[in-house]
Amino acid sequence: MDFLGICGILLAIVTGFVVWIWIQSYLGFVKPIPGRRKLLVTAHPDDESMFFAPFIAWETSRGSIVHLICLSDGNFDGQGSLRRGELTAACHELGLPQEFLHLIDSPHFRDDPKASWEPEEILRIIVKYCGEHEIDAVVSFDSHGVSGHRNHTSIFHALATLSRNPSFRPCIYTLESVSILRKYFLLFDTLCTMLWEPEYVYSLGSDLNSRPQQAMLRHRSQLLWFRHLYMWTSKYMTINTLRKISFRGSR
User: Fold this and answer.
1) Residue 70 is inside which H or E element, if any?
2) pLDDT at residue number 251
3) Which of 1, 91, 189, 233 could disulfide-link 96, Cβ–Cβ 3.0 to 4.6 Å?
4) Residue ranges making up the domain that contains 60
5) How much is the pTM?
C-alpha cells in the first residue's frame, strides 16, 4: 500500500471518530415543548414505549406532569386484559404514575389496523380531560402515525380539527414520522436531526437511555422477534422529534 492509501485510511478513521464524538455529544440534547402539564394520547398499549418513550422518560425525570390517555386496550388478538397490566408496568418504568394513566374501554375505539375512529369521540374525551386537568400541551401522532396504522392517524385527524378551535387552550404537538432508513438507522437519523433542526427534540442521554427498552420488555405479549430487533435499532427508542400543529385560521 502506497503513502496516499495509508493517508486515506487514517483520514477515514479520524473522520469516523469525529463524527461519532459529534453524535454522542448530541445524544442527550433536548429542546422540550413548553408547559408543565402534558397529555399524551395514544391508540394502543405499547405505543407509549415503542414511539414516545424518550418524550415521557425525559419529561417525567425533570418533574413535568405527564398524563397518558390510551384509547383502546389492544384487544385485536383477544389479549386486552393482559395488555392493560403490561401498560401499567411499562409506564412505571418510564416514570409515569398510575394515577395519570387512563385507558379507555369503548366500542368506538376498536383495535384494528383497518378501522378509522370517529374524530368526534376522540375530541370529546380530549377536550373534557384537558379542562379537568389544566393541560398545557397535547402530544400524539402526525398524519402518517409512524406506521400508517389507521387508529394512529385517526387521533391526528381529530387533533387537526381541534387545532382550529380558538377556545381550545393547550398547544398541540405531533411526533414526526420518518423514512424507513431513518427509522431503523439511528446514526443516519441523528445526523438528519442535527442538520434538519426540528422544532422540538427529545434525545436520551446515558442517564435515561435504558428506560425505553425496559418499558418495552414489560409488553411481553407483544415481544415477537422483530420487536426485539426494533428495540435496539429504531430511532424512536432514543430520539423523538415533535412539531407543533399549525393551520390557517388557528392561533
Assistant:
1) strand 65-70
2) 40
3) 91
4) 3-244
5) 0.89
Residue 143: inside a domain: yes
Tens of pLDDT, residues 135-182: 999 999 999 999 999 999 999 999 999 999 989 999 999 999 999 999
Q: Residue 87 in contact with residue 79, Cβ under 8 Å?
A: no
CA angle 49/36/133 to nearest 5° reads: 85
Residue 219's nearest CA partner among 73, 106, 71 is 73
Say which CATH number the domain at 183 has: 3.40.50.10320
User: Which pLDDT score is estimated for 16?
Assistant: 58
Give the pLDDT of residue 64: 95
Q: Give the Cβ contact number of residue 119 at 10 Å.
A: 17
- When divided into structural domains, the chain yields a total of 1
The answer to whether 245 touches 159, Cβ cutoff 8 Å, is yes
Is 62 domain-assigned? yes
Res 248: pLDDT: 43
Rounded CA separation 140/135 (Å): 14
Give me the pLDDT at residue 173, please: 98
What are 139's strand-pairing partners? 40, 173
**What pLDDT, on the 0 to 100 scale, is given for residue 139?**
98
Angle at alpha carbon of residue 131, lines to 127 and 133, rounded to 5°: 120
Task: Give residue for cell 378509522.
Answer: 116
Main-chain phi, psi angles of 39, to 5 degrees: -115, 120
Q: Is 115 within the bounds of a domain?
A: yes
Enumerate residue ranges in the chain where pLDDT < 50: 17-18, 248-251
202's enclosing H/E stretch is strand 200-203
- The DSSP secondary-structure symbol of 240 reads E
CA–CA separation, 119 and 116 (whole Å):
9
